[in-house]
Amino acid sequence: MLSKDTGTKLMRYLILYMSHHGTTQRVAKQLSELLGIENSTVVDLSKSKLPDLNLFHTIIIGGSIHGGRIQSRVRKFCEAHKGKLLNKRIALFLCYMDKAHGHEAFHNAFPKDLIEHAVVHGFFGGEFLFSEMNFLERAIVQKLSGIQTDVSELDTHAIRSFSESILMNDKKHTLEDTAA
Ligand SMILES: Cc1cc2nc3c(=O)[nH]c(=O)nc-3n(C[C@H](O)[C@H](O)[C@H](O)COP(=O)(O)O)c2cc1C
pLDDT exceeding 90 applies to what percent of the chain? Predict the structure, then answer.
């Protein structure tokens, strides 16, 4: 399929993310493998130049929660590109450790209209990786959670079913486009 704006060939999936200690980064790479490496481009919003959003079918956006908030650059990206994102298929995901407040964190992390527009929402849990934290972060995590060693509570089942929902949605629309 060709982009309406540029006439160039569209790629299927753009995965945009930010990560403090590597967990969301690993999730983004895992999603790319589940969706097909050849069909996906993974971009760290803190490092890489933003590609042309018009060149992708589906845009997947994710970040992690620190002190109750998603990375501000993720939030700013969503606000700045909202118009374009509302005309694309999008999917949103979050890594976090406070299970009781995951949904609340998600609703604070992403703009309401993008949440409503997204074809799927991912709640993936997270990890505490003490070797990646600085002194202050270690002290905060130990004080608030009582945890002192590395823990991984990533929900691999949720990651897999998130990618399956994207693939199914994509297949459904491809069939509709072909039939039209
Ligand atoms: C200093 C610090 C603060 C955190 N604050 C929260 C929080 O407010 N709520 C929460 O659910 N998880 C919190 N977490 C857990 C992170 O969301 C979790 O470690 C996540 O896997 C980090 O992903 P990342 O390495 O991709 O940034 C915090 C972690 C750290 C180190």
Answer: 86
The answer to whether residue 52 sits within a structural domain is yes
Domain contains 3: no
Q: Among candidates 122, 125, 130, which has minimal Cα distance to 153?
A: 125
Query: Cα of 50 to ligand 1 centre, how many Å?
Result: 25
Which residue carries 């309406």 as its tokens? 4
**Ligand 1 center from residue 116 Cα (angstroms):** 25
Number of independent structural domains in the chain: 1
Q: How far is ligand 1, taken at its centre, from the CA of residue 65, in Å?
A: 5
Q: What is the mean pLDDT of the chain?
A: 92
Pocket of ligand 1 contains residue 127 by CB under 6 Å? yes
